[in-house]
Amino acid sequence: MTLDTYNAAHSARRRADEHWSRRRDLERQLHDGPALRIAALALRLGLLAQKARCDVGGLPHDIEELQNQLHLIQQELRAVADRIYPPLLHEAGLGPALRELASNASLRVDADGGRFDPAVEGVAYFAVLAVLAALQPATRTVDVVIRRDADGLALDVGNVDTGQIGAVRDRVQWVGGVAEVRGGLIGTIKVRIPCE
Amino acid sequence: MRVALADDGALFRNGLVLLLEAAGHEVVGCTADGDTLVELLTTEPADVAILDIKMPPEPDGGLSTAERLRADHPELGLLFLSHYAETHYLLRVLHIGTEAIGYRLKEKVGSVEVLSDTLTRIRDGEIVIEPVLAQRLVERPSSSRRDMLATLSEREMDVLRLMSEGRSNAGIANLLFVAAKSIEKHISSIFLKLGLPSDAAEQHRRVLAVLTFLRSAQEIG
């Protein structure tokens, strides 16, 4: 029986690793393919506008409008990429990726710069995102503390609605993590995820 | 203007060379990585170097290349072009320098006018920051600096926003349809309200004001 449980946990973790690595690869594919092509296309349109600069039929203006559309497509691709796997999470880790959200949410991030595998960083990032999404915007400053200790990831999300514990637990259990509440309705959600 | 560039994406690199030439600039070097560009620029003088942030040497070749270039050629302007509009990279760019430096999105420099304007301002010593990035930082400052910024008037916020895009006083005056003198008054008031030291040089205080403003959205240092 013990052996069966052990294997199930391992297999769940393997599936989680595959899932998050695939998400990271998908983001990469978006960047290396369509995003770069669109950026190059914007330049070619600029060249066309330069050739058509004496056109009296408004061609340069139409071309500029097309370039604006390309910029909007790029912004949409960036938003999709962030929902799949934020490129900054992959490049620089949890601290910088969460700090980037500080421009959209009131958030203080204290991170020691430790790195974890893609599944752990992905699960932790989207768990914090879920907690932030449940808050009224700009009502309080959320405190996030990220540490790498001997057991793995220690993540504290403070000054939040602790009713979100269920959503956090659902996410972190996938990679063998645990979550608990300290404080009352507004308090701290503490997450621990074991890492090798 | 003499321009050198490095980007590992051939499609974008070639498009950029064509557009630079159409704008009347001389492309003195075009490489797929940072190391080759550094080597090339030891013999070939240039006014501005255009760098992709994510290129070899990995991981952020544009940033490490820029640090070497700034040390070797302090006069050389640096323009970062990236697919990513992240404050994380903006702050790293500003650590390399706050003069003759720029960070713009790849798809936003696709016209002769914008490209030349960006390059000219950088060559002349200004900071050029992608407006969507500057805008995002102004609108959502985080709580710790919010109090300080909240004391600024609406007009002072407009001025600070334009300063963070690297505009000169004359440029700001033009955009806001007011005299340069009143912009100077606004800026003194901004310096005062942000508590910037009055003994520092004007340019230095300007950079500090912009950094205060940028850091208000991101807790760093």
From TrEMBL, chain A:
Ranges where the Signal transduction histidine kinase subgroup 3 dimerisation and phosphoacceptor domain occurs: 23-87
Gene Ontology terms, MF aspect: phosphorelay sensor kinase activity; protein dimerization activity
Coiled-coil residues: none
Cellular component GO terms held in the UniProt record: membrane
Pfam families from the UniProt entry: HisKA_3
InterPro entries to which the protein is assigned, alphabetical: Sig_transdc_His_kin_sub3_dim/P (IPR011712)
Name this polypeptide is given: Signal transduction histidine kinase subgroup 3 dimerisation and phosphoacceptor domain-containing protein
UniProtKB/TrEMBL annotation, chain B:
Domain of life: Bacteria
Ranges of residues in domain HTH luxR-type: 145-217
CDD domains in the record: LuxR_C_like, REC_NarL-like
Any single GO BP term: phosphorelay signal transduction system
Domain called Response regulatory: residue spans: 2-121
The name this protein goes by in its record: DNA-binding response regulator
Keywords on record: DNA-binding, Phosphoprotein, Transcription, Transcription regulation
GO molecular function, one term: DNA binding
Post-translational modification 4-aspartylphosphate, affected residues: 52
UniProt cross-references to InterPro entries, sorted A to Z: CheY-like_superfamily (IPR011006), NreC/VraR/RcsB-like_REC (IPR058245), Sig_transdc_resp-reg_C-effctor (IPR016032), Sig_transdc_resp-reg_receiver (IPR001789), Tscrpt_reg_LuxR_C (IPR000792), WalR-like (IPR039420)
Tagged with keyword Transcription: yes
Matches recorded under SUPFAM superfamilies: C-terminal effector domain of the bipartite response regulators (SSF46894), CheY-like (SSF52172)
